[in-house]
Fold:
Amino acid sequence: MTLDAALQNDIVLRYLLIAAAALGVAGLVLAVLTALGKNVGPVWRTYRGWLVMVPIVLAAVLLGRTAFIAGVALLAIFGFKEYARATGLYEDWWMTGLVYLGIVLLAVASHVQDPRLGHDGWYGLFMALPAYVIGAILLVPIFRNQSQGQLQRIALAIVGFMYFGWMFSHLGFLANAHYAYGYILYLLFAVEINDVAAFMCGKIFGKHKLRENISPKKTLEGAIGALVISVGLAWALSFSFPHFAPWEILLAGFIVGVGGQLGDLVISYIKRDIGIKDMGAVIKGHGGILDRVDSMIFVAPIFFHVVRWLHGLREVPVS
Amino acid sequence: MTKWEYHPAPDLDETLADHLRNFPRQPFMLLYAIRSMAALLLRAWMRVYHRLSIDGREHLPTDGSFILVCNHTSHLDTLCMLCSVPLKQIHRVFPAAAADYFFSSLPRSAVSAILINALPFDRKVKGAESLSACAELLSNDGNVLIIFPEGTRTTTGEMGRFRSGIGRLVVGTDLPVIPCHLEGGLRAWPKGKLLPRPFRLHLRVGETRRYGDLEKNSESVRKICEDLHEAVAELGGPTK
Structure:
């Protein structure tokens, strides 16, 4: 992944067009609705959030492997920060410091060369890091010579590292894949469309609650609608992975359709247990960073490992 | 199983802009790390680019809260004052900064809050509120407040009248007030210039003053302002 490679890559150019068209059409629809006197003020705020986020994300992809891995690491760091502030873990600087360090090490493992195999991205270290980081977190109470309340702290820190750090960082490691552009841009686009589809299908067809004690607004119809749209979208975006068999394309859509909604539900029950509405307010109209990337956290590692099992990350097709 | 107790940060719902503008701020590890790095770079820059020298550091109290007051010639004043306190105290040092200038936009707020750790001081509308925020800050042990009692940067080099805020803050209290004088600031970075020039800076730190024996009235406030004005001017030496 480099800037030159990105600008000459057919997949990147198609996604740039798709992103521009999607933002343009959405803006046009909102303008028409506003002209018709509909109350779409909050949607405009969300739309403005997209206008800022989409160029930043695309720039990180275009600028290359280093920029993308660093961008994912920053999102993981600030996502974990939101979680730490929401749970109260932020008051424990040793625990949060170790998680931050762990996330930085994940980014390093994603970026450096494997010393034995010689290619970019040290997969072995990436997979082994949780053992070391969790080990270090578990040692903190011993160094402190404290037991009271320590189980809650280490549990929060380990979930924080594994979920917001390690699972999410799989997205950054995908930058080392032969089909990095296709995989990454597909995930970024499809996961967001899946979120929008679940919302819209729920609004239009929603009758039966999906998990009323976790997220009362989500409906079964919304979830099924989003799954159908995500599978269809994977088919429409199959140019992203030209080496996939038809059933693999459908599987990619299924992973996004199901995983995206599970990721959303995970953040929902975390927020509900804590008793907060949003994880933060850093993105106007979207809430916190975690409210935006919640679906991706679940989808990225599943997609990563399925693709790796099926094709290997660096497999180059024989033409 | 017992339900876990969570303690979400009180400013969780604040936007980034509010988070930067509001005071007091919640301690945050990444922010502390960035500020510590910035403080190290600032000290290196001041030593190399401005050849900053500091006299009288031994007058700074080693415990408790205290106030540093200084003449105000340029933005370098705050940076020099920040360099005068030990690095480990950097997150407990709060320069009072005009809210209408230093917190007027997101980038300015970010620099003021993250790098400088400034306390937004409303000098136009909510002066009394800002003073109580300062008093609250000083009631906690180990905090340092930096104040420029002139209220604005001088353009002539003449030190302006000290406003009553500093007097009202310390009258009848035993808070240590340390007068300081910075020389060279006006030449190095006069008001209106975009970037500082590499001129030498010299900060003199004076002896501690306390005003606990004064009654709380406007006369005492005036006396404190005059006394501090005189002390800062004396540190600057005879007018050339």
About this structure: The CA atoms of residues 243 and 317 of chain A lie 7 Å apart. The interface with chain B takes residues 77, 81, 85-88, 90-91, 93, 96-97, 100, 152, 273-278, 280-282, 284 of chain A (CB under 8 Å). Chain A has a mean pLDDT of 91.
